[in-house]
Design goal:
This protein is α/β, with parallel strands linked by helices. It has helices at about 5-10, 50-65, 75-85, 100-110, 125-130, 155-165, 175-180, 215-230, 235-245, 245-265, 285-290, 305-315, 345-350, 370-380; strands spanning about 65-70, 90-95, 115, 135-145, 170, 190-195, 210, 270-275, 300-305, 320, 330-335, 360. The protein binds pyridoxal-5'-phosphate (PLP).
Length: about 375
């Protein structure tokens, strides 16, 4: 079955005891056993819950993996991947990253004993040099399109590089979602998500997931999911599965709106740079065309007037809310330097291009004319 059909039907079996078309939400911590150890496959909800299982099944199917594990947040999902390594192992991590991922690697997993190398740019040679710095490379962690600069990495080429160094390859697929990009089909071992964003899609649930190419690759992650217990509750799993049913139509509209807004912004005098993989002017536009179905709903802009102009712009917006996070049906604007990426030291941030004048837009699915009018009036102020 095709993607849209699986989004709606996979992991959604009508309830056999009542016929309820939408399976009930299993709000239970425990499962009654006939005799000690004699049960129907479930014993305790940290270890397994039918609502969570349904969600994991649809996530695995949409990413083209064999198995998935759901977590209480995107960072909990990432932690499980990092913790499945051993102290002394090495990670090459994307040159541009979600701020919380950078903090997790730098402040938690470096002290824990992982060696982490960051390439200095998106160039494949920079990734090659980063591998050469590691004593025992075990993981290549990619994020594409990157947050907040929307650089695009060539997943197939970098996955091949990772394999040559004996590393597992994980891709944070939060920005693209499996509707637009499927890393496992391009050679990755794991697709990792903050499902808080587009998969949930309605800004009302924090959660994460790891999807693995094979069930065997998921085993250590599944072990940590239960042993450490950072699991999402049944209500979160239900909300996510409900959001996923409209993923394809939402991503098409997000992509339409973002594409039109990017073109409108590119012609505005107050805007120095528009970063959007769908623009022919984007340095990795050709790679994006090859590995993505469409270009997604995230657009970043750098304003001529620097930090002061960016702050003024964010507070003048009326349809866009000035808020962290992304991927919901409503449009949001954020100032990465003082909000989502404030945890990156200023010198590293500036060197990476996350300047004071940068604003990241999560373009929602409102009418695009209202969105264009809103950014125009905010720029004019
Ligand atoms: C939000 C985000 C995360 C972290 O996810 P949480 O659900 O907030 O823990 C990781 N990666 C990317 C790209 C994100 O946007």
């Amino acid at each position: 079955m095709e993607f849209e059909t699986r989004s709606i039907h996979t992991g959604q079996v009508p309830d056999p005891s009542t016929g309820a078309t939408i399976p009930p939400v299993y709000l239970t911590t425990t499962f009654t056993q006939k005799a000690p150890g004699e049960h129907l496959g479930y014993d305790y909800s940290r270890s397994g819950n039918p609502t969570r299982n349904g969600l994991e099944e649809v996530l695995a199917s949409l990413e083209g993996g064999e198995a998935a594990a759901a977590f209480a947040s995107g960072l909990a999902a990432e932690s499980a991947v990092f913790q499945s390594l051993r102290p002394g192992d090495g990670i090459v991590a994307s040159h541009d990253l979600y701020g919380g991922t950078f903090r997790l690697l730098d402040k938690v997993f470096r002290p824990w004993g992982l060696e982490v190398a960051f390439p200095e740019s998106a160039a494949p040679e920079a990734y090659q040099r980063a591998f050469a710095q590691l004593k025992r490379p075990r993981l290549l962690w990619l994020e594409t399109p990157t947050n907040p600069l929307l650089d695009v990495l060539d997943i197939a080429a970098l996955a091949a590089l990772g394999k040559r160094h004996g590393a597992l390859v994980a891709v944070d697929n939060t920005f693209a979602t499996p509707y637009l990009q499927r890393p496992i089909e391009l050679g990755a071992d794991f697709a990792v998500h903050s499902t808080t964003k587009y998969l949930g899609g309605h800004s009302d649930v924090v959660s994460g997931a790891v999807v693995a190419r094979t069930a065997e690759l998921l085993e250590p992650i599944r072990f940590l999911q239960n042993a450490q217990g950072a699991v999402p509750g049944p209500l979160e799993c239900y909300l996510l599965q409900r959001g996923i049913k409209t993923l394809a139509v939402r991503m098409d509209r997000h992509s339409d709106n973002a594409g039109q807004l990017a073109v409108a912004l590119a012609g505005d005098g107050g805007v120095k740079k528009v970063l959007y993989p769908g623009l022919a002017s984007h340095p990795e536009h050709e790679i994006a065309k090859r590995q993505m179905r469409r270009f997604g709903g995230m657009v970043s802009i750098e304003l001529e007037g620097g930090e002061a102009a960016a702050r003024r712009f964010c507070s003048r917006l009326r349809v866009f809310a000035c808020a962290e996070s992304l991927g919901g049906v409503e449009s949001l604007a954020c100032h990465p330097a003082s909000m989502t990426h404030a945890s990156i030291p200023p010198d590293i941030r500036e060197a990476r291009g996350i300047t004071g004048g940068l604003v990241r837009l999560s373009v929602g699915i409102e009418n695009v004319n209202d969105l264009i009018a809103d950014v125009r009036q905010a720029l004019a102020g």
